[in-house]
């Protein structure tokens, strides 16, 4: 995460750990993301079941999505680099059947430094939009290294129109125009994923959480391309 670290504090572990310790986490819904599970419903329509699937969620945060995925029968690996939030998540998950049955794990560390393992599905929700835009290509490469050929990347993507992109500094949705969340246009997202994932579904979500920005949370389902 190198050259972004000095320039942008949100590219450091300390920044995110501090936000969680201060309780400054407006992105946390306290419940699973409706839009992410719209994406999971699209997978079900394609005949791809969560039950028995191996699922990765980078930046799993307090685990509302990850624990719900596990409760639906997926074997979930959540990745979180805030030691504080990972410890809280382990306490929260203690005693759940999905944990005792080995269907949920959380790994503390920098997602970009983890050695990839093969998963069926990678779930996205407020991880890509929290990254410095300079890291987007690295994000796609790392996700692609985890997802097996013909597997899926799905989830909740923060999308703005090409027109809005011209007036947003760095596509930042923050009130001061600096820092995360960073939205992305459909054109840029498809360009980033090209050669790694092919689009199956990309549309505005209909189940965004209360108080979230309407029209910006999109359902995305992308199939992992076979390596050429």
Task: Describe this protein's structure.
The chain has 228 residues and is an alpha/beta fold. Helices cover 32% and strands 22% of the residues. It is built from nine helices and seven strands; from the N terminus they run H-H-H-E-H-E-H-H-E-E-H-E-H-H-E-E. The chain has a seven-stranded mixed β-sheet, with helices on both faces. Helix 7 links the parallel strand 4 and strand 5. It is globular.
Salient structural properties:
single chain, disordered N terminus, 32% helix, 228 residues, alpha/beta, 9 helices, seven-stranded mixed sheet, 7 strands
- State the strand order across the main sheet: 3-2-1-4-5-7-6
Number of strands: 7
Structural class: alpha/beta
SSE string, helices as H and strands as E: HHHEHEHHEEHEHHEE
Give the count of helical stretches: 9
> What is the molecular shape?
globular
Query: Which ranges are low-confidence, i.e. pLDDT below 50, for 5 or more consecutive residues?
Result: 1-6
Compute the gyration radius: what is it? 17 Å
Short synopsis of the structure:
The protein is of the alpha/beta class and 228 residues long. The protein is built from nine helices and seven strands, in the order αααβαβααββαβααββ.
List the helices and strands and how they pair.
Layout: H1 2-7, H2 13-22, H3 34-45, E1 54-58, H4 64-71, E2 75-80, H5 83-93, H6 97-100, E3 104-108, E4 119-125, H7 136-146, E5 147-158, H8 162-165, H9 186-193, E6 197-204, E7 217-224
Parallel strand pairs: 1-2, 1-4, 2-3, 4-5
Antiparallel strand pairs: 5-7, 6-7
